[in-house]
Amino acid sequence: MSTFTIFLILIIIVSLLLMLVIMVQNPKGGGLSSSLGGGGSQVVGGVKKTGDFLDKSTWTLATLLIVLILLSNISLKDDYREADSKLLQGGDIENTVPDSLPEPISTPDSE
User: Fold this and answer.
1) Which DSSP helix (H) or strand (E) runs through 69?
2) How many CB atoms lie within 10 A of CB 83?
3) Transmembrane residues, as ranges (predicted)?
4) What is the C-alpha separation between 47 and 28, in angstroms, rounded?
5) How high is the pLDDT of residue 91?
6) Mapping DSSP to helix (H, G, I), strand (E, B) and coil, where does residue 34 land?
7) 37: region left, alpha or beta (phi > 0 left; psi from -120 to 50 alpha)
8) How many Cβ atoms from other residues are within 10 Å of residue 61's Cβ?
9) Rounded distance, CA 101 to CA 98, Å?
10) How far apart are the C-alpha atoms of 81 and 79, rounded to whole Å?
């Protein structure tokens, strides 16, 4: 399994987690924070404000997603660098030049 595949799996997992965290939030200020604790200043399960926790987890997952994407791009370039071309290996290369060139298209004389 290549490093790019590992990064790809991690990117998918982080993306799913990010979607889950975003879906839990309510854009109007409700969401999980209002349904569990009511007020924003109450302590719920050891977290001061559930909204703050969701905001921080959103930013953390988004940052992690960007870092994983950049690292996967670097690992993909490294994988391509390791593979040599057929020219460098001295392998057989198909002839891409045709045996005969096509005849030029004749244009009517402008007399």
Assistant:
1) helix 50-82
2) 8
3) 7-25, 58-76
4) 21
5) 55
6) helix
7) alpha
8) 19
9) 7
10) 5
Q: What's the CA gap between 66 and 63, in Å, rounded?
A: 5
* 67 alpha-carbon distance from chain centroid: 9
Per-residue pLDDT, 1:
78
Nearest partner of 23 among 68, 54, 53, judged by Cα: 54
- Residue type at 55? D
pLDDT in single tens digits along all 111 residues of the chain = 788 889 999 999 999 999 999 898 876 655 555 555 555 444 445 545 777 888 899 999 999 999 999 999 888 776 565 555 555 555 555 656 666 777 777 777 755
Can you give the pLDDT at residue 104? Answer: 75
| Single-letter amino acid code for the residue at 95 | N
Measured between its terminal Cα atoms, the distance across the chain in Å is 70
pLDDT of 12: 96
| Residue 34: predicted pLDDT | 54
Q: What angle do CA 66, 52, 8 make, to 5 degrees?
A: 20
To which residue do tokens 């200043």 refer? Answer: 41
